[in-house]
Amino acid sequence: MSNTYKSAGVDKEEGYKTVDKIKKAVGETHNSNVLNHLGSFGAFYEIGGYKNPVLVSGTDGVGTKLKVALDTKKYGSIGIDCFAMCANDILCHGAKPLFFLDYLACGKLDSEIAAEIVLGMVEACKDNNCALIGGETAEMPGMYQPGDYDVAGFCVGIVEKDQIIDGSKIKAGDKIIALPSSGFHSNGFSLVRKVFPNFEEEFEGKPLYETLLVPTRLYYKDIHKVIGEVNVAGIAHITGGGLYENVPRIIPEGLCASIDASKIQIPSVMLELEKRGGVTREEMFGTFNMGVGMTIVVDAEHAEKVLHLLDDAYEIGEITEGSEKINLSI
């Protein structure tokens, strides 16, 4: 019997099935700027209507949160997570997402699972006026075990050069406003899985995995609502490393983000993890978002307007003079 690609563990037909299951939905994310469709070697996106455009790009994955989805066979939210982790990053610079590409790797491709993951990306792209214009599915037996998947994404956005938000205009006296997260988002799941090994256990009247798999919040509409009304000095996406690592990334030298942790609305599942795992409060804030998915820095006179524009936002601190970049009073 002769060797074939299929006998080596790669089933091309399953890949074709995946494309068939997602092609129509993916096409629904396209607009007039997309010049070709799935199947080309490269994706074409035409840019127009900008005076001095700057492209802003971001890439990320969902980490070991994927393990929760695989173990519980609940894949629908993972694609949303993948898109959100990339798109939320470029929002920090005032960019609008233009297009998104995905990369899906596995040991043995199941077209149903792959399609469910990609359709989550489609849902997120639609919600962010973004086109899913390409991707890659890699079946790699020997590198991954059957049932294993990994997923990554790549988002490209655009902003006028004179409207880039980079933190350079932050000054003492500015207010720091928090936008709540939807939970753990897609960070810290190695610790989450260690403390919560049983995803099926009941938590607040439902299986724990339902809480763990709540997708990363998409902030496109919120951020651009504020940018359209207020001059924003800085935006930080609170991902791995929490407030400690992400807020300082936008703070100029000589200034400090003074944050009062007692004002932060910490999700109950994070408090349960802290208690059950014997995790210190400092470690919690250095690992998780602790309920703050984004922070916005604005002039003090605009703070009330931002709070009015965003129903669930709230103030957590202000910019002061100092060399630490962040002072988080826990």
Summary?
The protein is 31% helix and 25% strand. The chain contains eleven helices and twelve strands.
How does this model look, in words?
There is one protein chain. The protein is α+β, with helices and mostly antiparallel strands and 330 residues long. The chain has 2 domains: 5-160, 60s Ribosomal Protein L30, Chain: A; 174-328, PurM-like C-terminal domain (Phosphoribosyl-aminoimidazole Synthetase, Chain A, domain 2), CATH 3.90.650.10. It has helices at 12-27, 65-72, 78-91, 111-127, 189-195, 208-212, 220-227, 242-246, 268-277, 281-285, 303-309; strands spanning 53-61, 96-106, 131-139, 149-160, 175-180, 202-203, 206-207, 232-237, 255-260, 292-298, 314-321, 325-329. The strands form 3 sheets. It has a 6-stranded mixed sheet. A hairpin with a 2-residue loop joins strand 6 and strand 7 (206-207). Helix 3 (78-91) runs parallel beside helix 4 (111-127). The radius of gyration is 21 Å and the shape is globular. It starts with 11 loop residues before the first helix and ends with a strand. The relative contact order is 0.16. The mean pLDDT is 95.
